[in-house]
Amino acid sequence: MTDVAASREFRIEETGERVNGLELDLHLFFGVWAVVERHEDRLVVATEDGERRTLVAVWD
Fold this sequence. Notes:
The chain is α+β, with helices and mostly antiparallel strands. The chain contains one helix and five strands.
């Protein structure tokens, strides 16, 4: 299992899109996404319009 804290790349479970650590940091910094749940292997974020996305930590 991949640890969220150690991962620098994520896959959006709903779309299959990959998000790198910088993109995640920028989305969170500018308020585009907000973390609503944190698990060992994934994050659940809420978007500006209230949708929820599951970000699964991945290793390459």
